[in-house]
Amino acid sequence: MAKLGSKEKPIVVRVRSEERGRYVAHVCAQHGWDYIIGFANTEDISDLEKALNPPQPVRSVKVGRNDPCPCGSGKKHKQCCGSG
């Protein structure tokens, strides 16, 4: 899958004003991203926000069978949420 901001998947934004469009173009140029800017009555810069703040991968913590249960019950994990 192509990365957001690449030639295959450019950042697509809609802005209300030319000034806002110049700002988006400047930010994209600083990062070397390809982009498409359109003008509309409603603004949508969600692609730019996703590129600036990419989602972090979810990390899970492995709980041992004899460790206290993370639910806070005070029981061992194997006798609480780990049973089943």
TrEMBL record:
InterPro entries found in the cross-reference section: SEC_C_motif, SWIM_PBPRA1643
Entry protein name: SEC-C motif domain protein
